[in-house]
Specification:
The protein is of the alpha+beta class and 510 residues long. The protein contains 18 helices and 21 strands. The chain is 31% helix and 21% strand. The strands form 5 sheets. Strands 14, 15, 16, 17, 18, 19, 20 and 21 form an 8-stranded antiparallel sheet that branches. Strands 7-8-12-10-11 form a 5-stranded antiparallel sheet.
């Protein structure tokens, strides 16, 4: 008898022989998964279980304790796991204890429960991390558990690039299904715009492909629809020739703020936007030195030192530090890992932030960062409705240049959670009110930067939300990924506004 059917038969015998409560205690989803997947199912007493939890980026996610962790080695393992998990889901409810589950890639989303779950099953995809370039070097197939560091290391060696994450240890899976911004965004749009095919395991356990010709409605839905349709196991992404690039970070004292803002506005609103240029303009406060620093992350994706388009930033003096150099994607994205270390409390205008920040400025380990990222039409046009690879965002490619604004807070101790969470939330409320007053607010929210109490999918517009809901009903008719995967952002009900610590963002027009 096949192992999976044997597990189901055992469960049926249990319900016949024992009381419901006794049976539920003996037939949790974890035990059913173990019967099917054996050593791929990890329990709290095992070192591998604790090792998996320790690799989440934030303490909040590290402190969530699933009943078991499934570590699939391939698509077939994912399929087996989903068959077990869906077998005990009926009318949106788990009929066996502990059958709700989470799906994690690298685990970089900071709020608790985003890619982990208490008293449920966490599917840890990190063992599915292969990187395979096709013979023509035009498409790279990447396992959903890979980190961008592995992708860049493989491609740098052969002079090939891909639109991908800007921080090396960020995972491929979460970034791409949430959209994804890269240093190549002006040339190629969001990372999801470069996906030619997804391999995904659906709620019934079958693995299918989604691309422009096969399951094209699912292909569209996965471009910003996150974890609502199944478990993506592989991404096939377009590649392009890529040699050395020029990039790094420049640090300036905060009294250069007026020059920083002027340079940013001119860069974002340039009539002839240089599609090889990418940057993030940030302001960081640390309790260690009790002061602000301006930080510009600058990248030019061609082999050209100090190009004209970036000189308004490179010319700002004095400089406290400068790491600009000719390098490659592996190196420049690894630098950003050092600027955003894991293992701290991570939740997720300047005048507002500076004033409110004083209420928690002395918290141990505090690093507060306010970052601005350009979002010009050269980026949004790649995923427009009339583009060859439309995404679900609903952004108007003819709209004026916009700005992604992100505040990130890191701190050391859980005892400071309440005051920092509330203060950080207050900063964003006040900033949002100011944007409305100035007539600059844009309602689109970038999912990969959103906090749990925001509604990024709702910001895609009613037409696109309707398309995502239709895809969900078609490919997940029982609603498994709506009801039994509580993490992330759902399609039919806005997630309750329960604080997990701000890591907040909105797109604000300038």
């Amino acid at each position: 008898m096949p192992q999976y059917l044997s597990g189901v038969w055992t469960t049926l015998l249990c319900f016949l022989a024992l009381s419901e409560d006794q049976c539920r205690a003996q037939t949790t989803c974890c035990h059913q998964l173990e019967a099917v997947l054996g050593k791929a199912v990890l329990f709290p007493e095992q070192a591998a279980y604790n090792s998996s939890l320790s690799t989440y980026w934030s303490q909040q996610e590290q402190n969530v304790t699933p009943s078991c962790i499934v570590s699939p080695q391939n698509t077939q393992d994912v399929s087996k796991a989903i068959k077990v998990l869906s077998q005990y889901q009926e009318a949106g409810k788990s009929i066996i204890a502990g059958c709700k589950f989470a799906i994690r890639g690298a685990g970089h989303t900071p709020w608790a429960g985003s890619a982990n779950i208490d008293d449920g099953v966490t599917i840890d995809m990190t063992s599915i991390g292969s990187v395979d370039l096709n013979r023509a070097e035009t498409v790279v197939s990447v396992g959903a558990g890979a980190r961008w560091s592995a992708v860049y290391q493989a491609l740098d060696a052969v002079g090939v690039g891909v639109a991908g994450g800007r921080v090396a240890d960020v995972g491929v899976g979460g970034l791409v299904t949430g959209g994804g911004l890269s240093y190549h965004a002006p040339r190629y749009g969001f990372v999801c715009d470069q996906v030619v095919n997804y391999e995904i395991v659906l709620a019934n356990g079958t693995a299918v492909n989604a691309n422009a010709k096969t399951n094209s409605d699912l292909w569209f839905a996965l471009k910003g629809g996150s974890n609502n349709f199944g478990v993506v196991t592989r991404f096939d992404l377009k590649t392009f020739p890529q040699g050395k690039l020029w990039g790094g970070s420049i640090y300036n004292p905060i009294d250069t703020l007026p020059a920083q803002i002027q340079a940013f506005v001119e860069f974002n609103n340039a009539s002839n936007y240089d599609i090889n240029a990418a940057m993030i303009n940030g302001y960081s406060f640390t309790s260690r030195i009790s002061s602000w620093t301006a930080v510009n992350l600058l990248v030019y994706t061609k082999r050209e030192v100090n190009p004209r388009v970036l000189r308004p930033f490179t010319d700002i003096k004095p400089q406290l530090g400068n790491t600009m150099r000719l390098t490659n994607l592996s190196d420049v994205t690894s630098e950003q890992v050092q600027n955003a270390p894991g293992g701290l409390r991570q939740p997720t205008v300047f005048q507002i932030a500076n004033t409110t920040l004083q209420t928690f400025a002395h918290a141990p380990g505090l690093v507060y960062t306010l970052a601005y990222e350009p979002l010009p039409s050269v980026i949004t046009s790649h995923g427009a409705a009339n583009a060859g690879s439309p995404n679900a965002f609903g952004l108007d490619p003819d709209a004026a240049a916009q700005v992604l604004a992100l505040q990130t807070v890191q701190w050391a101790h859980a005892t400071d959670d309440a005051i920092i969470n509330e203060a950080a939330r207050r900063i964003w409320v006040q900033a949002d009110e100011l944007a409305v007053k100035m007539g600059l607010q844009r309602k689109w929210i970038y999912l990969n930067y959103a906090e749990r109490d925001q509604d990024p999918i709702g910001s895609y517009g009613s037409e696109n939300v309707g398309k995502l809901q239709a895809a969900s009903k078609k490919y997940d008719p029982t609603g498994l990924f709506q009801t039994n995967v509580p993490g992330g952002f759902k399609l039919f009900d806005k997630v309750a506004a329960e604080s997990r610590g701000p890591n907040r963002q909105q797109a604000v027009g300038v």
